[in-house]
Protein backbone atom coordinates (compact mmCIF):
# COMPACT_ATOMS: atom_id res chain seq x y z
CA UNK A 1 0.00 0.00 0.00
CA UNK A 2 3.02 2.31 -0.03
CA UNK A 3 4.04 4.89 -1.10
CA UNK A 4 2.01 7.16 1.15
CA UNK A 5 1.44 10.53 -0.47
CA UNK A 6 0.18 13.78 0.94
CA UNK A 7 -0.96 16.08 -1.87
CA UNK A 8 -1.42 19.77 -1.06
CA UNK A 9 -2.62 18.83 2.40
CA UNK A 10 -4.27 21.59 4.37
CA UNK A 11 -5.77 21.53 7.84
CA UNK A 12 -7.48 24.65 9.01
CA UNK A 13 -9.20 25.63 12.24
CA UNK A 14 -10.99 28.96 12.69
CA UNK A 15 -9.33 30.35 9.60
CA UNK A 16 -5.85 29.40 10.72
CA UNK A 17 -3.88 26.98 8.56
CA UNK A 18 -2.14 24.59 10.93
CA UNK A 19 -1.02 22.33 8.10
CA UNK A 20 -0.41 24.50 5.08
CA UNK A 21 -0.13 22.79 1.72
CA UNK A 22 2.02 19.78 2.59
CA UNK A 23 3.31 17.69 -0.30
CA UNK A 24 5.09 14.59 0.87
CA UNK A 25 5.86 11.09 -0.32
CA UNK A 26 6.83 8.37 2.16
CA UNK A 27 8.12 5.20 0.60
CA UNK A 28 8.74 1.75 1.95
CA UNK A 29 11.91 0.75 3.75
CA UNK A 30 13.02 4.07 5.21
CA UNK A 31 12.45 5.16 8.78
CA UNK A 32 10.88 8.59 8.32
CA UNK A 33 11.24 11.01 11.21
CA UNK A 34 9.29 14.25 11.37
CA UNK A 35 10.83 17.01 13.48
CA UNK A 36 10.21 20.70 13.99
CA UNK A 37 9.53 23.28 16.68
CA UNK A 38 6.42 23.27 18.86
CA UNK A 39 3.31 24.21 16.92
CA UNK A 40 4.83 23.19 13.59
CA UNK A 41 1.92 20.83 12.95
CA UNK A 42 3.79 17.53 13.37
CA UNK A 43 1.12 15.70 15.36
CA UNK A 44 -1.63 17.08 13.12
CA UNK A 45 0.22 15.90 10.03
CA UNK A 46 0.59 12.43 11.54
CA UNK A 47 -3.13 12.28 12.30
CA UNK A 48 -3.98 13.43 8.78
CA UNK A 49 -1.75 10.77 7.25
CA UNK A 50 -3.26 8.08 9.48
CA UNK A 51 -6.80 9.20 8.65
CA UNK A 52 -7.80 10.34 12.12
CA UNK A 53 -8.48 13.82 10.80
CA UNK A 54 -10.18 14.91 7.59
CA UNK A 55 -8.10 17.50 5.74
CA UNK A 56 -9.62 20.87 4.93
CA UNK A 57 -8.07 20.54 1.48
CA UNK A 58 -5.78 18.17 -0.34
CA UNK A 59 -5.69 14.42 -0.01
CA UNK A 60 -3.82 11.45 1.36
CA UNK A 61 -3.19 8.61 -1.08
CA UNK A 62 -1.94 5.08 -0.57
CA UNK A 63 -0.38 3.66 -3.74
CA UNK A 64 -2.23 6.38 -5.59
CA UNK A 65 -5.65 5.64 -4.03
CA UNK A 66 -7.59 7.07 -1.10
CA UNK A 67 -7.59 4.89 2.00
CA UNK A 68 -10.31 2.27 2.27
CA UNK A 69 -11.07 0.07 5.26
CA UNK A 70 -8.52 -2.54 4.20
CA UNK A 71 -5.77 0.09 4.05
CA UNK A 72 -6.83 1.57 7.39
CA UNK A 73 -6.60 -1.84 9.05
CA UNK A 74 -3.03 -2.25 7.87
CA UNK A 75 -1.83 0.81 9.76
CA UNK A 76 -1.38 1.51 13.44
CA UNK A 77 -0.58 4.48 15.62
CA UNK A 78 0.97 4.96 19.03
CA UNK A 79 0.18 8.18 20.84
CA UNK A 80 2.34 10.24 23.14
CA UNK A 81 0.14 9.25 26.07
CA UNK A 82 -0.83 5.60 25.65
CA UNK A 83 -4.58 5.05 25.61
CA UNK A 84 -5.11 1.69 27.25
CA UNK A 85 -8.46 0.04 27.72
CA UNK A 86 -9.78 -0.56 31.21
CA UNK A 87 -8.84 -4.21 31.22
CA UNK A 88 -5.72 -6.32 31.65
CA UNK A 89 -2.53 -5.98 29.63
CA UNK A 90 -3.25 -9.22 27.77
CA UNK A 91 -6.85 -8.20 27.13
CA UNK A 92 -5.64 -4.98 25.48
CA UNK A 93 -3.64 -6.96 22.96
CA UNK A 94 -6.45 -9.47 22.44
CA UNK A 95 -8.81 -6.56 21.74
CA UNK A 96 -6.62 -5.24 18.93
CA UNK A 97 -6.17 -8.71 17.45
CA UNK A 98 -9.91 -9.42 17.50
CA UNK A 99 -10.55 -6.06 15.84
CA UNK A 100 -8.37 -7.39 13.01
CA UNK A 101 -10.14 -10.74 12.78
CA UNK A 102 -7.70 -12.88 14.78
CA UNK A 103 -9.41 -15.46 16.99
CA UNK A 104 -8.97 -18.86 18.61
CA UNK A 105 -5.54 -20.40 19.03
CA UNK A 106 -3.83 -17.71 16.95
CA UNK A 107 -5.25 -15.05 19.27
CA UNK A 108 -3.80 -16.76 22.32
CA UNK A 109 -0.43 -17.42 20.68
CA UNK A 110 0.04 -13.92 19.29
CA UNK A 111 -1.03 -12.29 22.55
CA UNK A 112 1.57 -14.29 24.44
CA UNK A 113 4.19 -13.62 21.77
CA UNK A 114 3.75 -9.85 21.88
CA UNK A 115 3.63 -9.71 25.65
CA UNK A 116 6.93 -11.58 25.63
CA UNK A 117 8.50 -9.28 23.05
CA UNK A 118 7.45 -6.28 25.10
CA UNK A 119 8.78 -7.95 28.25
CA UNK A 120 5.32 -7.82 29.82
CA UNK A 121 4.47 -11.52 30.13
CA UNK A 122 4.70 -11.41 33.92
CA UNK A 123 2.21 -8.52 33.92
CA UNK A 124 -0.28 -10.11 31.50
CA UNK A 125 -3.15 -10.19 33.98
CA UNK A 126 -2.45 -6.84 35.60
CA UNK A 127 -4.87 -4.00 34.88
CA UNK A 128 -3.15 -2.14 32.07
CA UNK A 129 -3.68 1.25 33.61
CA UNK A 130 -1.78 0.50 36.81
CA UNK A 131 1.40 -0.30 34.88
CA UNK A 132 4.24 2.21 34.90
CA UNK A 133 4.54 4.78 32.11
CA UNK A 134 7.22 2.81 30.30
CA UNK A 135 5.30 -0.45 30.64
CA UNK A 136 2.12 1.19 29.35
CA UNK A 137 3.90 2.55 26.30
CA UNK A 138 5.54 -0.85 25.60
CA UNK A 139 2.07 -2.38 25.85
CA UNK A 140 0.63 0.24 23.49
CA UNK A 141 3.36 -0.51 20.95
CA UNK A 142 2.93 -4.26 21.35
CA UNK A 143 -0.82 -3.81 20.84
CA UNK A 144 -0.23 -1.68 17.75
CA UNK A 145 2.22 -4.17 16.23
CA UNK A 146 0.36 -7.34 17.21
CA UNK A 147 -1.79 -7.40 14.07
CA UNK A 148 1.21 -6.86 11.76
CA UNK A 149 0.61 -3.38 10.34
CA UNK A 150 2.49 -2.28 7.26
CA UNK A 151 2.85 1.27 8.60
CA UNK A 152 3.35 2.36 12.20
CA UNK A 153 2.87 6.01 13.11
CA UNK A 154 4.40 7.11 16.41
CA UNK A 155 3.68 10.49 17.96
CA UNK A 156 6.48 11.24 20.43
CA UNK A 157 6.25 7.78 22.01
CA UNK A 158 9.07 8.36 24.48
CA UNK A 159 8.37 12.00 25.36
CA UNK A 160 7.85 11.48 29.07
CA UNK A 161 9.89 8.32 29.61
CA UNK A 162 13.22 7.66 31.27
CA UNK A 163 16.26 6.53 29.21
CA UNK A 164 15.81 2.84 30.02
CA UNK A 165 12.19 2.88 28.86
CA UNK A 166 13.16 4.90 25.80
CA UNK A 167 15.75 2.31 24.79
CA UNK A 168 13.26 -0.53 25.31
CA UNK A 169 10.73 1.19 23.09
CA UNK A 170 13.25 2.07 20.40
CA UNK A 171 14.29 -1.61 20.30
CA UNK A 172 10.67 -2.68 19.80
CA UNK A 173 10.19 -0.16 17.01
CA UNK A 174 13.50 -1.07 15.39
CA UNK A 175 12.51 -4.74 15.45
CA UNK A 176 9.28 -3.82 13.68
CA UNK A 177 11.23 -1.91 11.07
CA UNK A 178 13.54 -4.88 10.54
CA UNK A 179 10.49 -7.09 10.08
CA UNK A 180 9.27 -4.80 7.30
CA UNK A 181 6.96 -2.27 8.98
CA UNK A 182 7.27 1.28 7.66
CA UNK A 183 8.01 3.61 10.58
CA UNK A 184 6.85 7.24 10.64
CA UNK A 185 7.99 8.87 13.87
CA UNK A 186 7.40 12.33 15.27
CA UNK A 187 9.90 13.31 17.92
CA UNK A 188 11.23 16.32 19.78
CA UNK A 189 14.28 14.38 20.81
CA UNK A 190 17.02 15.25 18.34
CA UNK A 191 19.19 12.48 19.75
CA UNK A 192 16.44 9.99 19.00
CA UNK A 193 16.01 11.48 15.54
CA UNK A 194 19.75 11.09 14.91
CA UNK A 195 19.69 7.47 16.16
CA UNK A 196 16.64 6.49 14.30
CA UNK A 197 16.05 8.41 11.12
CA UNK A 198 16.83 7.27 7.62
CA UNK A 199 15.12 10.37 6.29
CA UNK A 200 14.13 13.57 8.06
CA UNK A 201 11.12 15.72 7.32
CA UNK A 202 11.52 19.16 8.86
CA UNK A 203 8.22 20.89 9.45
CA UNK A 204 7.86 24.58 10.24
CA UNK A 205 4.57 26.44 10.69
CA UNK A 206 2.61 23.73 8.93
CA UNK A 207 4.89 23.51 5.91
CA UNK A 208 7.52 21.02 4.91
CA UNK A 209 10.72 23.03 4.83
CA UNK A 210 13.03 20.17 3.98
CA UNK A 211 13.07 16.43 3.31
CA UNK A 212 16.55 14.97 3.37
CA UNK A 213 18.45 11.79 4.08
CA UNK A 214 19.32 11.82 7.77
CA UNK A 215 23.06 11.73 7.14
CA UNK A 216 22.93 14.96 5.17
CA UNK A 217 20.26 16.70 7.29
CA UNK A 218 22.13 16.53 10.57
CA UNK A 219 25.45 17.55 8.99
CA UNK A 220 24.38 20.17 6.46
CA UNK A 221 20.67 20.92 6.42
CA UNK A 222 19.65 22.92 3.36
CA UNK A 223 16.95 24.98 5.07
CA UNK A 224 18.07 27.95 7.18
CA UNK A 225 15.24 27.33 9.64
CA UNK A 226 16.28 23.70 9.98
CA UNK A 227 19.88 24.74 10.67
CA UNK A 228 18.70 27.22 13.30
CA UNK A 229 16.51 24.54 14.87
CA UNK A 230 19.35 22.04 14.99
CA UNK A 231 21.65 24.64 16.55
CA UNK A 232 19.09 25.21 19.28
CA UNK A 233 18.37 28.77 18.24
CA UNK A 234 14.80 29.96 18.71
CA UNK A 235 13.00 29.65 15.41
CA UNK A 236 10.18 32.17 15.12
CA UNK B 1 -52.01 5.88 68.50
CA UNK B 2 -49.15 3.82 69.88
CA UNK B 3 -46.35 5.67 71.55
CA UNK B 4 -43.13 5.84 69.56
CA UNK B 5 -41.14 3.57 71.84
CA UNK B 6 -43.67 0.80 71.55
CA UNK B 7 -43.87 1.37 67.80
CA UNK B 8 -40.10 0.98 67.39
CA UNK B 9 -40.18 -2.09 69.57
CA UNK B 10 -42.89 -3.62 67.45
CA UNK B 11 -41.00 -2.68 64.31
CA UNK B 12 -37.84 -4.52 65.38
CA UNK B 13 -39.91 -7.46 66.57
CA UNK B 14 -41.52 -7.70 63.14
CA UNK B 15 -38.14 -7.51 61.43
CA UNK B 16 -36.32 -10.07 63.55
CA UNK B 17 -39.25 -12.48 63.74
CA UNK B 18 -39.37 -12.62 59.95
CA UNK B 19 -43.00 -11.56 59.88
CA UNK B 20 -44.72 -13.05 56.81
CA UNK B 21 -46.60 -9.87 55.86
CA UNK B 22 -43.43 -7.84 56.13
CA UNK B 23 -41.47 -10.33 54.06
CA UNK B 24 -44.17 -10.43 51.38
CA UNK B 25 -44.16 -6.63 51.01
CA UNK B 26 -40.37 -6.40 50.93
CA UNK B 27 -40.00 -9.20 48.38
CA UNK B 28 -42.64 -7.68 46.10
CA UNK B 29 -40.89 -4.29 46.31
CA UNK B 30 -37.59 -5.86 45.36
CA UNK B 31 -39.18 -7.86 42.54
CA UNK B 32 -40.90 -4.79 41.07
CA UNK B 33 -37.95 -2.44 41.38
CA UNK B 34 -35.29 -4.89 40.26
CA UNK B 35 -37.39 -5.87 37.25
CA UNK B 36 -37.92 -2.21 36.38
CA UNK B 37 -34.22 -1.47 36.64
CA UNK B 38 -33.33 -4.51 34.53
CA UNK B 39 -35.66 -3.40 31.73
CA UNK B 40 -34.54 0.22 32.10
CA UNK B 41 -30.92 -0.89 31.71
CA UNK B 42 -31.74 -2.96 28.63
CA UNK B 43 -33.19 0.17 27.05
CA UNK B 44 -31.20 2.92 28.72
CA UNK B 45 -27.64 1.61 28.44
CA UNK B 46 -27.57 1.20 24.63
CA UNK B 47 -29.64 4.36 24.20
CA UNK B 48 -27.21 6.36 26.30
CA UNK B 49 -24.21 4.86 24.52
CA UNK B 50 -25.70 5.63 21.11
CA UNK B 51 -26.38 9.22 22.10
CA UNK B 52 -22.80 9.53 23.34
CA UNK B 53 -21.13 8.14 20.23
CA UNK B 54 -23.38 9.00 17.31
CA UNK B 55 -23.81 12.39 15.75
CA UNK B 56 -27.12 13.24 14.07
CA UNK B 57 -29.33 16.27 13.52
CA UNK B 58 -31.28 17.10 16.67
CA UNK B 59 -28.89 15.27 18.97
CA UNK B 60 -28.64 18.23 21.35
CA UNK B 61 -32.41 18.49 21.58
CA UNK B 62 -32.70 14.78 22.37
CA UNK B 63 -30.15 15.15 25.17
CA UNK B 64 -32.00 18.14 26.61
CA UNK B 65 -35.29 16.21 26.56
CA UNK B 66 -33.66 13.14 28.10
CA UNK B 67 -32.14 15.20 30.90
CA UNK B 68 -35.51 16.85 31.50
CA UNK B 69 -37.21 13.45 31.69
CA UNK B 70 -34.97 12.56 34.64
CA UNK B 71 -37.17 14.87 36.67
CA UNK B 72 -40.47 13.30 35.65
CA UNK B 73 -42.91 13.55 38.57
CA UNK B 74 -43.80 9.99 39.62
CA UNK B 75 -47.50 10.79 40.03
CA UNK B 76 -47.63 12.13 36.47
CA UNK B 77 -46.01 8.94 35.21
CA UNK B 78 -48.50 6.96 37.26
CA UNK B 79 -51.36 8.92 35.76
CA UNK B 80 -50.11 8.42 32.19
CA UNK B 81 -49.66 4.67 32.67
CA UNK B 82 -53.05 4.50 34.40
CA UNK B 83 -54.71 6.13 31.38
CA UNK B 84 -52.95 3.69 29.03
CA UNK B 85 -53.80 0.58 31.03
CA UNK B 86 -57.30 1.44 32.20
CA UNK B 87 -60.29 -0.28 30.61
CA UNK B 88 -60.91 2.76 28.45
CA UNK B 89 -57.25 3.03 27.46
CA UNK B 90 -55.49 1.59 24.40
CA UNK B 91 -53.81 -1.16 26.43
CA UNK B 92 -56.82 -1.91 28.63
CA UNK B 93 -57.41 -5.25 26.88
CA UNK B 94 -54.33 -6.67 28.57
CA UNK B 95 -55.88 -6.22 32.04
CA UNK B 96 -52.61 -5.01 33.55
CA UNK B 97 -53.94 -2.25 35.78
CA UNK B 98 -53.57 -2.94 39.51
CA UNK B 99 -50.97 -5.66 38.93
CA UNK B 100 -47.25 -5.79 39.71
CA UNK B 101 -46.64 -5.65 35.95
CA UNK B 102 -48.26 -2.21 35.79
CA UNK B 103 -45.99 -1.12 38.63
CA UNK B 104 -42.93 -2.45 36.81
CA UNK B 105 -43.99 -0.53 33.69
CA UNK B 106 -44.43 2.68 35.65
CA UNK B 107 -41.07 2.39 37.41
CA UNK B 108 -39.36 1.48 34.14
CA UNK B 109 -40.69 4.69 32.58
CA UNK B 110 -39.40 6.64 35.57
CA UNK B 111 -35.95 5.05 35.71
CA UNK B 112 -35.06 4.66 32.01
CA UNK B 113 -34.32 8.38 31.40
CA UNK B 114 -32.09 8.42 34.49
CA UNK B 115 -30.11 5.44 33.30
CA UNK B 116 -29.93 6.68 29.70
CA UNK B 117 -28.86 10.20 30.65
CA UNK B 118 -26.22 9.10 33.14
CA UNK B 119 -24.96 6.44 30.72
CA UNK B 120 -24.61 9.06 28.02
CA UNK B 121 -22.44 11.15 30.31
CA UNK B 122 -20.24 8.24 31.39
CA UNK B 123 -19.82 6.93 27.85
CA UNK B 124 -19.25 10.36 26.32
CA UNK B 125 -16.44 11.11 28.76
CA UNK B 126 -14.82 7.78 28.01
CA UNK B 127 -15.36 8.20 24.28
CA UNK B 128 -13.45 11.45 24.39
CA UNK B 129 -10.52 9.54 25.83
CA UNK B 130 -10.82 6.47 23.57
CA UNK B 131 -12.00 7.99 20.29
CA UNK B 132 -8.70 8.33 18.44
CA UNK B 133 -7.36 5.01 19.72
CA UNK B 134 -10.48 3.10 18.68
CA UNK B 135 -10.45 4.73 15.25
CA UNK B 136 -6.77 3.91 14.90
CA UNK B 137 -7.56 0.26 15.70
CA UNK B 138 -10.21 0.29 12.99
CA UNK B 139 -13.06 -0.33 15.41
CA UNK B 140 -16.50 0.26 13.90
CA UNK B 141 -19.05 2.40 15.72
CA UNK B 142 -21.30 -0.40 17.00
CA UNK B 143 -18.29 -2.22 18.35
CA UNK B 144 -17.00 1.04 19.84
CA UNK B 145 -20.27 1.45 21.76
CA UNK B 146 -20.02 -2.08 23.13
CA UNK B 147 -16.39 -1.43 24.10
CA UNK B 148 -17.30 1.75 25.93
CA UNK B 149 -20.18 0.06 27.75
CA UNK B 150 -17.91 -2.77 28.89
CA UNK B 151 -15.02 -0.53 29.87
CA UNK B 152 -17.40 1.75 31.74
CA UNK B 153 -18.94 -1.19 33.59
CA UNK B 154 -18.05 -0.03 37.09
CA UNK B 155 -19.43 3.45 36.53
CA UNK B 156 -22.49 2.00 34.80
CA UNK B 157 -23.16 -0.37 37.68
CA UNK B 158 -23.23 2.74 39.83
CA UNK B 159 -25.74 4.23 37.40
CA UNK B 160 -27.92 1.12 37.70
CA UNK B 161 -27.74 1.32 41.49
CA UNK B 162 -28.81 4.95 41.31
CA UNK B 163 -31.76 3.88 39.19
CA UNK B 164 -32.63 1.18 41.71
CA UNK B 165 -32.48 3.68 44.55
CA UNK B 166 -34.94 5.89 42.69
CA UNK B 167 -37.29 3.01 41.92
CA UNK B 168 -37.43 1.40 45.37
CA UNK B 169 -38.16 4.72 47.06
CA UNK B 170 -40.91 6.06 44.85
CA UNK B 171 -44.56 5.87 45.84
CA UNK B 172 -46.55 8.15 43.52
CA UNK B 173 -46.53 6.02 40.38
CA UNK B 174 -46.97 2.61 42.00
CA UNK B 175 -49.86 3.69 44.18
CA UNK B 176 -51.82 4.94 41.15
CA UNK B 177 -51.22 1.97 38.83
CA UNK B 178 -50.96 -0.66 41.55
CA UNK B 179 -53.70 0.41 43.89
CA UNK B 180 -51.86 -0.77 47.01
CA UNK B 181 -53.91 -3.97 47.11
CA UNK B 182 -53.05 -6.23 50.05
CA UNK B 183 -51.11 -9.39 49.02
CA UNK B 184 -51.16 -8.23 45.39
CA UNK B 185 -49.59 -4.82 44.80
CA UNK B 186 -48.61 -3.57 48.23
CA UNK B 187 -44.96 -2.52 48.27
CA UNK B 188 -42.88 -0.89 51.01
CA UNK B 189 -43.58 2.72 50.12
CA UNK B 190 -47.33 2.27 49.58
CA UNK B 191 -47.59 0.16 52.74
CA UNK B 192 -45.81 2.85 54.78
CA UNK B 193 -48.27 5.43 53.41
CA UNK B 194 -51.28 3.28 54.36
CA UNK B 195 -50.08 2.12 57.77
CA UNK B 196 -49.10 5.64 58.79
CA UNK B 197 -52.50 6.98 57.81
CA UNK B 198 -54.07 4.22 59.91
CA UNK B 199 -51.87 5.09 62.84
CA UNK B 200 -50.32 1.60 62.81
CA UNK B 201 -46.72 2.76 63.14
CA UNK B 202 -45.11 -0.58 63.97
CA UNK B 203 -45.32 -2.02 60.46
CA UNK B 204 -44.66 1.40 58.88
CA UNK B 205 -41.50 1.83 60.93
CA UNK B 206 -40.34 -1.72 60.19
CA UNK B 207 -40.69 -1.08 56.48
CA UNK B 208 -39.03 2.29 56.83
CA UNK B 209 -36.06 0.77 58.64
CA UNK B 210 -35.73 -1.86 55.90
CA UNK B 211 -36.01 0.82 53.19
CA UNK B 212 -33.27 2.86 54.84
CA UNK B 213 -31.25 -0.31 55.21
CA UNK B 214 -31.58 -1.00 51.49
CA UNK B 215 -30.57 2.58 50.73
CA UNK B 216 -27.49 2.23 52.95
CA UNK B 217 -26.63 -1.07 51.28
CA UNK B 218 -27.01 0.48 47.82
CA UNK B 219 -24.78 3.40 48.72
CA UNK B 220 -22.30 1.11 50.39
CA UNK B 221 -22.28 -0.96 47.23
CA UNK B 222 -21.60 2.15 45.15
CA UNK B 223 -18.68 3.12 47.37
CA UNK B 224 -17.24 -0.39 47.35
CA UNK B 225 -17.53 -0.54 43.56
CA UNK B 226 -15.86 2.80 43.22
CA UNK B 227 -13.03 1.72 45.48
CA UNK B 228 -12.47 -1.49 43.54
CA UNK B 229 -12.57 0.35 40.23
CA UNK B 230 -10.12 3.02 41.35
CA UNK B 231 -7.74 0.38 42.69
CA UNK B 232 -7.67 -1.34 39.31
CA UNK B 233 -7.63 2.00 37.49
CA UNK B 234 -10.90 1.02 35.86
CA UNK B 235 -12.72 4.16 36.99
Describe this structure in words.
The complex is a heterodimer of chains A (236) and B (235). With 236 residues, chain A is of the alpha/beta class. Chain A has a domain at 4-83 and 150-230: P-loop containing nucleotide triphosphate hydrolases (Rossmann fold), CATH 3.40.50.300. Chain A has helices spanning 42-50, 69-73, 89-99, 104-117, 133-145, 163-178, 190-196, 214-220, 224-230; strands at residues 4-13, 16-26, 32-35, 57-62, 65-66, 75-78, 151-155, 182-186, 199-204, 207-213. Chain A has a six-stranded mixed sheet with strand order 6-7-8-3-9-10, sandwiched between helices. The longest helix of chain A has 16 residues, at 163-178. Chain A is globular. Chain B is mostly helical and 235 residues long. Chain B has one domain: MetI-like (MetI-like fold). Chain B has ten helices and no strands. The longest helix of chain B is centred in the middle third of the chain and has 37 residues, at 100-136. The relative contact order of chain B is 0.17. The A-B interface holds A 47, 50-52, 69, 72-73, 75-77, 79, 83, 85-87, 95-96, 99-100, 127-130, 144 and B 129-130, 132-133, 135-139, 143, 147, 151-152, 232-234.
Write the topology of this structure.
The complex is a heterodimer of chains A (236) and B (235).
Chain A: E1 4-13, E2 16-26, E3 32-35, H1 42-50, E4 57-62, E5 65-66, H2 69-73, E6 75-78, H3 89-99, H4 104-117, H5 133-145, E7 151-155, H6 163-178, E8 182-186, H7 190-196, E9 199-204, E10 207-213, H8 214-220, H9 224-230
Parallel strand pairs in A: 3-8, 3-9, 6-7, 7-8
Antiparallel strand pairs in A: 1-2, 1-4, 4-5, 9-10
Helix pairs in contact in A: 3-4, 3-5, 5-6
Chain B: H1 4-16, H2 20-53, H3 59-69, H4 74-85, H5 100-136, H6 141-151, H7 153-169, H8 172-178, H9 188-198, H10 201-231
Helix pairs in contact in B: 1-10, 2-5, 2-6, 2-7, 3-5, 4-5, 4-8, 5-6, 5-7, 5-8, 7-10, 9-10
Number of strands of chain A: 10
Distance between the termini of chain A: 37 Å
Going by CATH, the architecture of the domain at 4-83 and 150-230 in chain A would be 3-Layer(aba) Sandwich
Rounded Rg of chain A:
18 Å
